[in-house]
Each structure stands twice: as structure tokens, then as C-alpha cells.
Specification:
It is built from 8 helices and 2 strands. The protein has about 260 residues and is mainly alpha-helical. It is globular.
């Protein structure tokens, strides 16, 4: 049997957790996420963008750890990767999580794009957001490509060669990707800088613009015979807080 004291302790702990959750909701403004969205937005097809974002959070966190032990110079790059895997605490695990999350993100972002195409979510008034989404796709592929070069193994060397050849084909527009852009800094080092600074900043800017326009226009209508592409902001029987897994927000149960 459970003693009365245990019940009081459990209730006190639950009350304390609810109080902390309430404080965080107020301080972080999480109740603002409880705006209306259609019920069908909670299906897996409409969660692909959120899954991709969660993957990027994992990539950023693991990438920061890996960057502490990586040497972005052609003479030391591969050696530093070997040392990271063999001597750095949990280095092998973190690198594996980083690598496989990158593969998963590549798949989910492509599936997300295909869902947008299939559902017609690129139509008016969402054309600008479609182009921003394509920019996010290109940034994702750029991160995957530069990440593969950084290993500086056989695959990385071949990718670097492809990078140089592509820069020659593009001409002046590919100047940054060529070794001639800077004689004092190796191309690998500049690609590393692009991987950890330029591309993440570009991703952040595009993502915030993407999220803002999703909020402004709402979730695209279901493609039916009589549906019309339009803004659905403020419509829906569900809440975005449920869509992102935050059912504790104060407005979640409001009509």
C-alpha cells in the first residue's frame, strides 16, 4: 500500500513541476504558439519540417563538440578526425550521431519538399516561402557536401576535386570555391569556415523567414476538388502547440 505521506509528496512534486512549467511558459511566451491550425497538420506529412529542424539542432550541438578537436588544414585534417574517433571522450559516438543525423535530415528535407509539391503548398500566396524553402534545401545540401569534404579521406578528397572542377565550370560565380580565391588560406580551411559559419548563418536567416511566412499564411489547405489556395491563418480546430508537442500551454484547451 502507498502511504498518505507518499501521496502528499507526489502531489507536491507534481505541483512544483506544473509551477515551473507555468513560469517557463510565461517567460518564454510559449502560450503564443497555441494559435489555431487545421487538425490534419498533426499528421506525419506535415511534421517533416519539424523533424528536419530537430535534426539540425542535433547537428549544431554535435558539430560544436566536433569542431573543438578538428584541425581544418590539409596536412592535419584526417589525422585530427582519426584522433577524434580514437582518443577524444565519446568522440566516436558524437561523430556517428552527427553523420547519421545528417543522412536523416537529407531524407526528411527532400520528403518535406515532395509533400509541399504533392499538396500544392507552393501556390499563391505561398510562392515566396517556396523559394525560401528551396534556399533551405540548397543550404542543407551545401552543409552535407562541405561536411563530406572535411573528413579529408578518399571520399573527401574526391569531393574536393569535384568542388574545384565545378568552380571552373561556373566561372566567376564559383570564385569562392576555387583555390585561387585565396593563396594564403587552403581551400579546405575555407570550406570548413563555410560549414561552421556561413552556411549555418544562412540557414538560420532562411529558417526564421520560412517560419514567419508559415505563421502569416497558415497551413496550406487540403488539396481537394473544390479547395482554393488561400491564407488559412487563424483557422483550424487544433493548435500549433499540439503540432510541436507542447500540450501544456495555457491556451491549448481553449476553443
Amino acid at each position: 500500500m502507498t502511504s498518505p505521506g507518499a501521496d502528499v509528496s507526489t502531489e507536491s512534486l507534481t505541483s512544483k513541476r506544473n509551477s515551473i512549467a507555468a513560469v517557463l511558459r510565461e517567460r518564454l511566451g510559449l502560450d503564443g504558439l497555441a494559435y489555431p491550425v487545421p487538425e490534419y497538420a498533426n499528421s506525419i506529412g506535415y511534421l517533416l519540417g519539424g523533424i528536419t529542424l530537430a535534426g539540425f539542432v542535433i547537428l549544431f550541438v554535435t558539430g560544436i563538440y566536433l569542431a573543438q578537436f578538428y584541425h581544418p588544414h590539409p596536412a592535419d585534417a584526417h589525422t585530427s578526425v582519426v584522433a577524434l574517433v580514437t582518443t577524444v571522450p565519446v568522440g566516436d559516438l558524437v561523430r556517428s550521431v552527427h553523420f547519421w543525423t545528417a543522412q536523416i535530415v537529407t531524407v526528411t528535407v527532400l520528403l518535406h519538399m515532395l509533400r509541399v509539391l504533392y499538396r500544392g503548398a507552393y501556390k499563391r500566396p505561398r510562392e515566396v516561402n517556396w523559394y525560401i524553402g528551396l534556399g533551405l534545401l540548397a543550404t542543407t545540401l551545401g552543409l552535407v557536401f562541405t561536411g563530406s569534404v572535411l573528413k579529408f579521406d578518399q571520399e573527401g578528397l574526391e569531393a574536393l576535386q569535384h568542388n574545384s572542377e565545378a568552380a571552373e565550370v561556373i566561372g566567376a560565380l564559383g570564385g569562392w570555391f576555387s583555390a585561387e580565391f585565396s593563396r594564403t588560406v587552403p581551400l579546405l580551411t575555407r570550406l570548413f569556415n563555410g560549414h561552421v559559419t556561413i552556411l549555418p548563418m544562412l540557414f538560420a536567416l532562411l529558417f526564421f523567414a520560412h517560419a514567419f511566412l508559415v505563421k502569416q499564411h497558415g497551413i496550406s489547405p487540403k488539396p481537394t476538388a473544390d479547395s482554393i489556395s488561400r491564407s488559412t491563418a487563424g483557422e483550424g480546430s487544433s493548435r500549433f502547440s499540439r503540432h510541436v508537442g507542447l500540450p501544456g500551454t495555457a491556451s491549448f484547451y481553449s476553443p
